[in-house]
């Protein structure tokens, strides 16, 4: 054993550090909910929705049970279902396409940009063609703000307008980022985020929210999240879900939102240190002018075939890595029978073979990160 392997293992995401920072405030907030006992749709839920909408600059925030449901709610509210096509990137987490299938629609996969890893809007026209040829009605596109970086929302909006598509932004990873000085949450007809603990704005369980400026859409989604209620809970005007954010999670999120801007800044400091420490040796992620990132992941690209040895070398130094995503969706067992747009998905395939993510969280201190950078440099030169 050398000295390096005797150092403590580094967490990939350090939720414990944040817990320590927020312990007094969160413990008080949760105790308050335990005492008032309004566990479902208690006052903290409404308060959090108000704060979240204000943070993003959106008119409405409708919270729900998960980031996945946060995509189902707008799809359902828009009346998207069987016979409809929903266009989304292949290089993303499965939930982006899963929700199309859940509402009975057909996902059509398009490629991503090799630099930003986000949807390449040039592929949308070719996906619309494929949908029409298959007898489907193209209804929506779901861009993803992957790894925390805002997608090219201007290009997506232009393509969506040309083809009459609704836009639902999957901001599960990118909530908190901005594009042309506007925060994610204000692009598209609706934007969805997740409060899964590992996301940039996470809670202590499952949760999600949809942001929109559309009053009618917000009303429909509020109805659908609670069994399709009308004037009250026992007036059922449509088929809905049981998809509420727990009051306890809302209370936790109210505290987390207060420190979120500070955490975003800390994530950017970590990203800059990685770029400074590694940029001469590998392709480090870049942020296009006009966009910002909340660095949900710090993802680098290696030469094809180099990934396993690289991950093993870091692991030997006590440094975890993760692969987001090893198989593009169009090759997944559950999704491979769905169509791919005319432009193909070559970049998604290439990225799936080359990407690897390094530890990234707001509490990654400089000495620990120096250890990671040192290990990465040695592994790259090996
Ligand atoms: C995490 C994630 C989701 C789903 O969020 P859950 O809260 O886990 O349901 C959807 N899309 C993307 C891109 C994600 O990363």
3D structure, described in words:
- The protein has 382 residues and is an alpha/beta fold.
- It has one domain (1-382): Aspartate Aminotransferase, domain 2 (3-Layer(aba) Sandwich), CATH 3.40.640.
- The chain is built from eleven helices and eleven strands.
- It has helices at residues 15-36, 43-56, 69-77, 95-102, 124-133, 153-163, 215-225, 247-278, 307-316, 346-354, 366-381, and strands spanning 60-64, 84-89, 106-110, 137-141, 166-170, 178-179, 182-183, 190-194, 208-212, 298-301, 355-358.
- The chain has a seven-stranded mixed sheet, with helices on both faces.
- The longest helix is centred in the last third of the chain and has 32 residues, at 247-278.
- The structure holds pyridoxal-5'-phosphate (PLP).
- Pyridoxal-5'-phosphate binds at residues 66-68, 92-93, 95-96, 144, 170, 172-173, 194, 196, 206, 208.
Bound molecule kinds, no repeats: pyridoxal-5'-phosphate
Spans of at least 5 consecutive residues whose pLDDT stays below 50 are none
Helical fraction equals: 25-40%
Tally of DSSP helical segments: 11
How is the topology of this model organized?
Blueprint: H1 15-36, H2 43-56, E1 60-64, H3 69-77, E2 84-89, H4 95-102, E3 106-110, H5 124-133, E4 137-141, H6 153-163, E5 166-170, E6 178-179, E7 182-183, E8 190-194, E9 208-212, H7 215-225, H8 247-278, E10 298-301, H9 307-316, H10 346-354, E11 355-358, H11 366-381
Parallel strand pairs: 2-3, 2-4, 4-5, 5-8
Antiparallel strand pairs: 1-9, 6-7, 8-9, 10-11
Bound molecules: pyridoxal-5'-phosphate.
Residues 66-68, 92-93, 95-96, 144, 170, 172-173, 194, 196, 206, 208 line the site of pyridoxal-5'-phosphate.
């Amino acid at each position: 054993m050398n000295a390096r392997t005797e150092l403590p293992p580094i967490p990939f995401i350090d939720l414990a550090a944040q817990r320590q920072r927020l312990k007094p405030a969160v413990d008080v907030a949760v105790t308050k909910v335990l005492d008032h006992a309004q566990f479902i749709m208690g006052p903290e839920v409404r308060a959090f929705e108000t704060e979240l909408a204000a943070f993003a600059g959106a008119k409405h925030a409708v919270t729900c049970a998960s980031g996945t449901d946060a995509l189902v709610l707008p799809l359902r509210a828009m009346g998207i279902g069987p016979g409809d096509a929903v266009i989304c990137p292949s290089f993303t987490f499965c939930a982006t396409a899963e929700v199309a299938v859940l509402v009975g629609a057909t996902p059509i996969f398009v490629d991503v940009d090799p630099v930003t890893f986000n949807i390449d809007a040039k592929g949308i026209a070719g996906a619309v063609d494929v949908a029409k040829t298959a007898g489907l009605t193209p209804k929506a596109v779901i861009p993803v703000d992957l790894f925390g970086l805002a997608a090219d929302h201007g290009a997506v909006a232009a393509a969506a307008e040309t083809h009459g598509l609704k836009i639902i932004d999957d901001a599960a990873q990118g909530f908190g980022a901005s594009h042309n000085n506007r925060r994610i949450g204000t692009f598209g007809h609706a934007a969805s985020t997740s409060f899964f603990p590992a996301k940039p704005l996470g809670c202590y369980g499952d949760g999600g929210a949809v942001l929109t400026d559309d009053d009618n859409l917000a009303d429909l989604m509020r109805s659908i999240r609670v069994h399709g209620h009308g004037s009250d809970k026992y007036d059922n005007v449509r088929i809905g879900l049981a998809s509420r954010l727990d009051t306890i999670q809302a209370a936790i999120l109210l505290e987390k939102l207060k420190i979120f801007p500070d955490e975003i800044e800390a994530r950017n400091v970590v990203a800059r240190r990685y770029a400074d420490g590694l940029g001469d040796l590998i392709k480090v992620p870049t942020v296009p002018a006009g966009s910002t990132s909340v660095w949900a992941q710090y993802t680098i690209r290696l030469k094809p075939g180099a990934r396993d040895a690289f991950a093993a070398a870091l692991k030997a130094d006590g440094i975890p890595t993760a692969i987001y995503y090893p198989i593009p969706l169009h090759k997944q067992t559950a999704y491979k029978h769905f169509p791919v747009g005319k432009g193909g998905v070559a970049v998604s395939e290439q990225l799936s073979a080359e990407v690897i993510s390094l530890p990234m969280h707001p509490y990654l201190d400089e000495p620990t990160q120096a250890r990671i950078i040192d290990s990465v440099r040695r592994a790259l030169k090996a």
